[in-house]
Amino acid sequence: MKAGIIGLGEVAQLMHIPILSDMREDFTITAVSDVSASLTDFIAKKYGVKDTFLNADDLIEKSDTDIIFVLSPDQYHCSYAEKALKAGKHVFVEKPAALFSGELEGLVEIKKNYPSQLVMVGYMRRYSDIFLEAKQILTQIPQKTEYLRFRDIICEAPFFIRQTRPVFYPKDVPASIIEEGNARRSQHLDLALGKDSSPAARTAYQMLTGLGCHSFSAVRELFGIPKILSVTTSPNGEHLIVVMEFDGFLGVYELVNNQDIVQFDAAVEIFQKTRKITIKYETPYVRHQPMSLEVIESSLNETKTTLYGPSWRDPFRNELEEFAACIREGREPKTTLKDANEDLFLFKKIIEVMER
User: Fold this and answer.
1) Which residue of 31, 48, 224, 333 sits 20 to 30 Å from the alpha carbon of 149, by its own alpha carbon?
2) Does residue 89 contact residue 33 with C-beta atoms inside 8 Å?
3) Is this prediction's pTM over 0.90?
4) What is the pLDDT of residue 263?
């Protein structure tokens, strides 16, 4: 299948493009687009891509492609996905699929007119081996969950990238495009939260849509949508603690995304009286790290710890393999546009409780 890529930034260079290049039996990158001419030229030469575009609309309308990968800044995701659908393409769009639910609801309705085309949202943690193993255990050997704790307390990408894979950072993006992108993001945040929303609320919301959606999306798949009981943040919104009620048990989420301590503490811990299941994720910026699932089971007389894995399979590759399989088999992925909108509804509720 011939693939066109919109947006050639850090994540595209580190994950999507190398993986798509490796998956030659499923994908061939035939067109790329970015607002930077130097970056577009660099990627085209490095990966032998024939067609390059500085305008995403031109790639969608003029390139010979079957699939469009929307890896652009968040505020453009819905717009490009809609245009790709109307151009007859399958679409893979990175999370968040949109910044406000109204735009995504509109795209869900548009998608109904294109039943033979697939749209998949990139929630790669839900396709990792350890997550799928945990879900299988919870389904096949059910026990009552008593408490849930999940978190994203991380060091961001630059530390890891400097020691692993080089990234091309362009210096020729026109200032007018940067200004337009910032204005569009601000407008979308106004539509999501209201023009009078506090700076802390806007920061917290962007942290949730940018990072927290991975964890909330995974937890939603396992336990459904919680009721938000309380939300506490630091004054600037960069630290966030959410207390929730699920079906018969409480849950707590922590988000800290401004630390320079070199760690990636992203995990889901499920407490079930005599069993504890821990899903521990590693940084996606270093590919093929071994990931394991830990299950502790206790009785009156003994405790047993079972380690599943390690698995070296890359969750990004897992989700792209599933995307290819869905296209071949004509079935929808689990991470649809409608599914992604559940996160936006939940995050808006979190901010409403926070502002109160």
Assistant:
1) 333
2) no
3) yes
4) 79
Buried b (16+ CB within 10 A) or exposed e, 118-147: bbbbbbbbbbbbbbebbbebbeeeeeebee
CATH number, domain 126-319+339-355: 3.30.360.10
89 close to 67: Cβ distance less than 8 angstroms: yes
At what angle are helices 77-86 and 101-111 packed, to 10 degrees?
10
**What's the token pair of residue 116?**
């033979």
| Alpha helices per DSSP H over 148-193 | 158-163, 175-193
β-bridge mates for residue 242, sequence order: 231, 253
Are the C-beta atoms of residues 350 and 131 closer than 8 Å to each other? Answer: no
Fold that domain 2-122 belongs to in CATH: Rossmann fold (3.40.50)
Token duo for residue 90: 């399958």
Q: What single letter denotes the amino acid at residue 10?
A: E
CB-based contact 68:89 (threshold 8 Å)? yes
**Cα angle 12, 14, 10; round to 5:** 55
Question: Each residue of 284-319: pLDDT tens digit?
Answer: 888 888 999 999 999 889 999 999 999 999 999 999
Write out pLDDT tens, residues 21-76.
999 999 999 999 999 999 999 999 999 999 999 999 999 999 999 999 999 999 99
Residue 221 pLDDT > 90: yes
The radius of gyration of the chain's CA atoms, rounded to the nearest angstrom, is 21
DSSP state of 284: T
- One-letter amino acid for residue 163 of the chain: Q
Cα separation, 256 vs 233, whole angstroms:
10
- The ranges assigned to domains in the chain are 2-122, 126-319+339-355
- 334: closest CA among 244, 222, 209, 225? 222
Q: Which of 59, 354, 71 is nearest to 235 (CA)?
A: 354
In sequence order, which residues have a C-beta less than 8 Å from that of residue 180 and are 6 or more positions away? none
Q: Is the peptide bond before 290 cis (omega within 30 degrees of 0)?
A: no
Phi, psi for residue 144 in degrees, rounded to 5: -70, 125
